[in-house]
Design a protein that fits this description.
6-stranded mixed beta sheet; transmembrane helix; alpha/beta; endopolyphosphatase activity; hydrolase; Endopolyphosphatase; 28% helix; 14 strands
């Protein structure tokens, strides 16, 4: 008895409560935290935020002119930003944006895609950017994500945040030397809360990594597009094994293969998109060729691709028929199209020209074999064409507009199919540490492993040095790289069904909702006539639009340039984002989902209005559009015909003419609707028509 009492006292002393004999205690995974977070389920939504461009020097009611950049002078810059201008974002806009996210989205999304450009532009020669400024605003935004999406116990994140490097997140902008380098080491520390521990070596080496946002089901791949970007004068191409672009795409090829082996799917994200038209491009051509081939071969794995950088809301298609194998090994293709590199500071007119080129590229699309719901749209199968019912020839890129108010500030919330995944284990933060850091802490961690690299040591934006680097790159252009034949991935098995990017299934992107903040109304500084009043007229999306010539200027002063605020002291309204449009109920877009086929059908409708020299839309083979050609067959001139037949033919011709005019009107409506979204509802239709 004494032994039993002593044993009981010992157990109580150690905090152990005895259970009745014979009752098995269920086993639990040991938790490293004192408090267990509330379990969460998948919502089937994620947030895309891009191009925030915080500017610590922004001042309210200063000039939006090129020499002032909302830093000095007197003018119309508002409390939350100077909409439709080239000024950057005030901190008030960033704070209000995160407050709105916390109040409206925090508990409704599964992960966040953050595609870079988290520092101000190099637009003010009187205040050149410094290393501390660029890293400081990036660190500030990283801390904001850590605060808003912290676990209830304050340890770790509640959902994954996947960051990405923008071309303005380094010095000088656009220029990043091969890694490892100091900038990659800085961001390894700033983003240590977001980059999985097992991926940090990959990121520090080249700036690329991935996160399994749904364990064993879905991964998000964050590409370092600075090594693919044609404007980066410190690198060359993606065919020379010594180039970081080559290494990154080899890494992507191998990792997508692992995803396929594990039965997983992937979303691709990056800052600079692989935009490419007949006359313009953003990526080096060899990088575009290899990336497009990879996505073609892994079309059963990749569910979609989202990008930032361009500030214009749009989409584009990559055509795998444009892959030229000679380019993949550094050789010259038989027919080489000369494309201009897109400028960073494109005017709206330049952006409109780019969109018009996209439209004319889409005019060459064949009518989709299947509608969005998979129904056959053409009962007459054309024997000379190989069927592509799911549009697997193409890949889709979705470019989101920005937070920085070059138009209006925006956020985009995607939705995806989680059928059968509702109870799937969700991502959990295994790190459980504070996400806050300071520059001094970063430097202390870095000083012991800081090594010399081939990159120049720059503490401020040095334009002359950037020009020297670009000049050296031009001198290397004529040298053909010695490249091995690429290892081409295997395509999906012939028996494999179309992947989630092509056929609705679990993890297919189903739609998105585009949010915007109408700063004209919120800032409450202007009236339509520029005078006093209560300013309620400002609620209109495109009110008081500035005279047309402002659009073609390289630096845009915005819709309120040369106007005085109605109040000396700002009196802003309550800040909020509202829905601009949603693909779920946009009747003009009429998208059943975000599969490639849905967008091929939309692009086909928009492209019908881009006419050839004879005024007739060109089809995929350069002839007239298939529908119109078949509906208006040539009559045999040798055949007998009477007057009744001639009369019938005239009636048919007249009916066909009306049909063509109707199709043209429908195409123009779709095109104007596309442009309206592209510029975030800041341009009136009468002005949109002046863009083409």
């Amino acid at each position: 008895m004494m032994v039993l009492r002593c044993t009981a006292l010992l157990l109580l002393f150690n905090g152990v409560i005895a259970e009745p004999l014979g009752v098995a205690e269920p086993q639990h995974v040991l938790q490293s935290w004192g408090k267990v977070a509330t379990p969460r389920n998948l919502h089937g939504r994620f947030l895309h935020i891009t191009d925030v461009h915080p500017d610590e020097f922004y001042k309210v009611h200063t000039s939006t002119g090129k020499d002032d950049a909302c830093h000095r002078g007197k003018g119309a810059s508002g409390t939350y930003g100077a909409e439709t201008s080239d000024c950057d974002s005030p901190f008030s806009l960033v704070n209000a944006t995160f407050d709105w996210i916390q109040a409206n989205l925090k508990d409704q999304i599964d992960f966040i895609i953050w595609t870079g450009d988290s520092a101000r532009h190099d637009s003010d020669e009187k205040i050149p950017r410094s290393r501390d400024q660029v890293l400081g605003t990036n660190r500030w935004l990283a801390n904001k994500f850590s605060d808003v999406f912290a676990n209830p116990d304050g340890k770790g994140l509640s959902i994954p945040v996947i960051p990405n490097l923008g071309n303005n997140d380094i010095l000088p902008h656009n220029i990043m030397f091969p890694g490892p380098n100091k900038w990659l080491r800085y961001y390894t520390d700033i983003w240590r809360r977001f980059i999985p521990e097992e991926q940090r070596h990959s990121f520090e080496y080249g700036g690329w990594f991935y996160v399994e946002v749904i364990p064993n089901k879905l991964a998000v791949f964050s590409l370092n597009t600075l090594y693919l970007f044609d404007r980066n004068a410190a690198v060359d191409n993606c065919v020379n094994p010594s180039e970081p672009g080559f290494k990154q795409l080899e890494w992507l090829r191998i990792q997508l293969g692992f995803m396929r082996d594990r039965g997983m799917k992937a979303i691709i994200m990056g800052h600079v998109p692989p935009a490419r038209t007949a006359g313009k491009q953003l990526w080096d051509e060899t990088c575009w060729q290899k990336y497009t081939l990879w996505l073609r071969q892994y079309r059963d794995v990749v569910t979609g691709a989202v990008w930032g950088h361009m500030n214009v809301d749009h989409f584009f298609l990559q055509d795998s028929k444009e892959i030229q194998r000679d380019k993949l090994s550094g050789g010259e293709a038989d027919s080489v199209a000369i494309r201009e590199a897109m400028e960073d500071d494109m005017s709206v007119q330049s952006k409109a020209d780019y969109l018009l080129e996209l439209r004319c590229d889409w005019s060459k699309l064949s009518k989709p074999a299947l509608s969005a719901n998979g129904a056959d749209q053409d009962n007459k199968k054309k024997k000379h064409k190989k069927p592509d019912p799911w549009s697997e020839r193409y890949q889709l890129s979705l470019v989101s507009p920005s937070v920085v108010p070059n138009f209006f500030p925006t956020l985009r919330v995607f939705e995806y199919n989680i059928s059968g995944l509702e109870k799937n284990p969700v991502w959990s933060d295994a790190l459980g540490q504070s996400g806050h850091s300071t520059l001094e802490e970063d430097e202390e961690r870095l000083e012991l492993r800081d090594t010399l690299t081939s990159e120049p040591e720059l503490e401020t934006e040095d334009r002359s040095q950037r020009a020297q680097i670009e000049k050296k790159k031009k001198g290397r252009k004529g040298k053909k790289p010695k490249a091995p034949n690429p290892m081409i991935p295997d395509p999906p098995a012939k028996s494999a069904p179309p992947g989630p990017a092509y056929s609705p299934q679990p993890l297919t992107l189903t739609g998105y909702t585009q949010y915007f903040a109408n700063l004209t109304y919120i800032n409450n500084d202007m009236t339509v006539d520029g005078g006093g009043g209560d300013g309620d007229e400002g609620a209109s999306h495109a009110d008081a639009w500035s005279p047309w010539p402002n659009w073609v200027q390289r630096w845009r002063e915005g819709k309120h340039r040369n106007r005085e605020p109605k109040n000396a002291k700002p009196k802003p309204r309550e800040f909020e984002f509202e829905v601009e449009y949603s693909t779920f109920d946009d009747k003009m877009y009429d998208l059943a989902d975000l599969t490639v086929g849905s967008f091929v059908e939309l692009a086909y409708r928009i492209g019908r209005g881009c006419a050839g020299e004879d005024g007739v839309r060109l089809g995929a083979e350069g002839g007239a559009d298939g529908d119109e050609a078949e509906a208006n067959p040539k009559l045999d001139s040798d055949s007998d015909s009477d007057s009744d037949f001639d009369s019938d033919a005239e009636v048919e011709a007249e009916a066909e003419g009306k049909k063509k005019k109707k199709k043209k009107r429908e195409a123009e409506k779709a095109w104007l609707h596309f442009l309206q979204h592209a510029f975030v509802s800041t341009v009136e239709k009468k002005d949109l028509k002046k863009l083409y």
